[in-house]
Amino acid sequence: MPSSKDTAWNEIFDVLDIHSHDFSKEPYRISAKQIKQICSKFSETAEKEPRIICYQAQRKDRPQVFVDRGLFLLPVKNGHYVIVKVTNDCDGYIDIPPITSPPVEFRSNLTFELRSSKVGDSEMQHVDKAYALGIIQDFCGVDPIFLTIRGRKYCPEFSFCVGSQALVAKGVQTEVDAGYEGKDTVVLIEAKNTKVKDIIIRQMYYPYRQWWHHTKKDTTVLLFEYNEGMYHLWQFEFDNPDEYTSIRLMKSARYKIV
User: How far is 204 from 223, CA to CA, in rounded Å?
Assistant: First the structure.
């Protein structure tokens, strides 16, 4: 049985005849206004709300028509998207391999217990505790770094490529769970509170381009998870700042507090 998202996108593809579009020549451009208009006849919120319909943070979130045709979705402007063809070496997402190396047994230099960090179970508080304990600094090999970036902002205009296709993004809303700046370095964190097998590259690439543009400093992106009582970190870099698909996993580690 098709999901609400499948119902919506099947209708969108039919009404706009996206089936006949030649994705090898260029992406297909679509707006939230078009989506809302086409899906207004549906009764369920999940079938007519663009914010929900366009949510594709992991491979499992893609509607079947995207999977069948090898497509993924990218925002390029507030309320505007492009449907992009998967390239030979990238489907728009990157795998997050499990960390199987022995845990790093880490001893913090803190001289007192952090009690407030035990209240709740949010992504943010686990990131903040990892920073306070010195885990993030140790993993990145950069100290001191200072918390200077957090929350949602709109990115400046930048051009980039997905394979042979050139795109421009401007004013897209990005969100950074935590960002730290050192003398020559910026460290951005995308935090998860549950295990993920893959993630859309956009969640790391757009903030990377945004803060590299603003600071002109060496910028790196970390994926952060707290689970099973340990802090898991993956460090990603882009070999070519202008190429969306040039992402590469540099290293990973899991930390256990002793």
Answer: 9
